[in-house]
Amino acid sequence: MKHILIIEDDEKIQQFLHSILTEIDNSFYLHVSPSAAQALEIANTHEISLFFIDIQLTDYKGTDLANELRALQRYKYTPMIFATAIVTEELRAYREIKCYDYLIKPFTREEVKQAVYGVLDYMKHVHINQQTVRFEQKGFIFEHRMQDIVYIESYGKKMIVHLKTADGIFQENLSGYSLKAIHELLEEGPFQQIHKSYIINKDYVKSISKAENTIKLQGHSAILPIGQKYRDVLMKVGN
Q1: Does the keyword Transmembrane helix apply (predicted)?
Q2: Going by C-beta distance under 8 Å and a sequence separation of 6 or more, which residues neighbour residue 14?
Q3: What's this model's pTM, rounded to 2 decimal places?
Q4: pLDDT tens, 99-138?
């Protein structure tokens, strides 16, 4: 569940933003604060995923609050959307605080939605790019970014992880894992089992042959078979 903090001293705008965010996703946990001081308390109590910050707050400037939040390691890169009626202030926010977007008052429901959807898409891609998976081998732990894994092959009692590197495709051999166990480790990433012996990263799909039940992956010469059991689900990737 994403926690979103609205820092705004105008009750009408508070309610306006609250209704829009609820409409976008009613699972959001929404916090509202009319002041910077209270906002800092909320931010220290909860893990906030997105800040809406009014630049002109009653106690002090929203840009000053944003700088205090940025000084906290947990919020160094957390998306911020500023609301302002002063053009020079939002430009300063962009330059110095690295806010994600800004809304110029009076803003519309569609402008808020566009900004929020942009943040959600950004957060999704950042999350995927930061994800890693760890494999333990003979007392050693090997960690790889999920985005670098092209596909995984079951070969007898061993597994082969095909990784994208600056020098091309690198193969890493694994033992002590089943394909099912590896699939469970990768469940948060863009992976799909296509055959009893193969799991692929869907982001690397180059082409799918429905006639031949095969798949080609970007940057790799191998042509992988598609198992009948997995065909229907996989074909949705190519649509």
Answers
A1: no
A2: 6, 8, 32, 34
A3: 0.52
A4: 778 888 899 999 999 999 988 887 776 655 557 788 888 7
Beta-carbon-side half-sphere exposure of residue 80 (alpha carbons within 13 Å): 26
Beta strand pairing call for 149-155 and 198-201: antiparallel
pLDDT digits (tens, 9 = 90+) for 174-212: 888 888 888 888 877 788 999 999 999 988 888 888 889
- Taking each helix axis from N to C end, the angle separating 109-130 and 11-24, rounded to the nearest 10 degrees, works out to 60
Partners of 3 in the β-ladder: 29, 48
Residue-by-residue DSSP string for 156-168? TTEEEEEEEETTE
104, 109, 21, 1: which is closest to 56 by C-alpha? 104
Q: At what angle do helices 36-45 and 62-70 cross, to 10 degrees?
A: 20
CB 102, CB 93: distance < 8 Å: yes
- 162: phi > 0 → left, psi -120 to 50 → alpha, else beta; which? beta
106: preceding bond cis by omega (within 30 degrees): yes
Task: Please say whether the beta carbons of 103 and 82 come within 8 A.
Answer: yes
Please, what are the domains in the chain?
Answer: 3-129 (3.40.50.2300), 142-238 (2.40.50.1020)
SS3 state at 2: coil
The CA dihedral of 213, 219, 221, 224, to the nearest 10 degrees, is -30
Nearest-angstrom CA–CA distance, 43 and 46: 5
